[in-house]
Amino acid sequence: MAKEKSKKKLGMTTLIFIGLFLGAFTGIILYYFVPGGYMRDTVLVDGVFYVVGQGFLRLMQMLVVPLVFCSLICGSAAIGDTKTLGKVGVKTIVFYLFTTALAISIALAVGTIVKPGLGLDTAAIQTQDVTVAESTTLTETLLNIIPTNPIGALANGTMLQVIVFALFVGIILAKLGERVEVVSNFFAQFNDIMMEMTNMVMMYAPIGVFGLISYTVSQHGLKVLLPLGKLILVSAIASVLHVIICYSPLVKYVVRIPLPTFFRGVFEPWLIAFTTCSSAAALPTNLQSVRRLGASKGVASFSIPLGNTINMDGTALYMGVCSLFIANVFGIHLSMDQMMMIVLTGTLASIGTAGVPGAGLIMLAMVLQSVGLPLEGLALVAGIDRVLDMFRTTLNITGDAAVAVAIDATEKSV
């Protein structure tokens, strides 16, 4: 009986955390104490660890498009009439935009006080080549949301287009009701299949997390953190402040659940987000966590997939901190107008950021261009982008969960 109890206590979250710790420990041992060679570099690091880690990441990404598509359809249909759906939709988007704008404002405030990058010796830092994506106009961005070929959008994983099409299908299913019961049941059952598939993939999570972390640490060691430690510290402080200022009051006073309960509830998706640096990979577990925290199936299935694409508080915060960092490195003073432009473009850019590792770095280029900051600064940030990505992705999925349970609470109070 005692053995059975101890086995039950060792849940998935604990196993993932163990995988994270063992991966970091293994990576440190290999980087600092094992000499380079065929066995370490080719067989272990670029072979076993890479395959195990990337295999887990691909399994999670495999779930995203069908899960988002089915969840949004089921969520829209479950909410019921189009009037209620419209109200929930508007409320969700307003919440998301507000928290994103607040995140980037906090980042600018903390960055202005701490001044990361000021007096940094750029010659001492190894920079990386960065490919900068061509910036698109606001009109093109808005038009690109509408899919010309929904099947193509599903095949290519163009998430904003998938969301728009899924919302249309869900709204029509809700409107037609019993006349389309067979189609509604199909999507509901397919959604159940995807959730069961998520459970199966998550059994592999501790091993996948071990592979991802051990690969990263065994390649870079801890040296990547030292030269740009101030930027990492500012990102961490701003992230914690955003949780305290924005999410904590939302959970405590709107949702009215104890803060420890909420943070325990989202701890598992936190670990997935932190290790994979992909909010898309953390989406399935985040959806389950929000349901366990008491959110209704309709609101959870609607808010979490939508937030996974348009609610990127961590990415917005990252853009604010990095913009100030690059300005300080090159001795450029940012005016209040430029800071307001960073808030605006950072909010818009974060909405279009894909929930995959490294996507924030590409969108940062757009923000830098909007305020005339040198794109050469991206090479400095790229060296530690993986570390910054861990913070911003964790914050992204926390925002999705906090807003989802808050929207659900406001709907239940009506």
Radius of gyration: 22 Å
Number of strands: 0
Taken as a percent bin, the fraction of beta residues is: under 5%
Helix-strand string: HHHHHHHHHHHHHHHHHHH
Report, as a whole number of angstroms, the end-to-end distance.
Answer: 47 Å
Specify the overall morphology: globular
Q: Which secondary-structure class do the elements indicate?
A: mainly alpha
Amount of helix: over 70%
Poorly predicted regions are: 1-8
Largest sheet: none
Whole-number average pLDDT? 79
Q: Number of helix segments?
A: 19
How does this model look, in words?
With about 425 residues, the protein is mostly helical. About 80% of the residues lie in helices and about 0% in strands. The protein has 19 helices and no strands. α2 runs parallel beside α9, α3 crosses α14 and α13 (about 280-290) packs parallel to α19. The protein is globular. It starts with a helix and ends with a helix. Residues about 1-10 have low confidence and may be disordered.
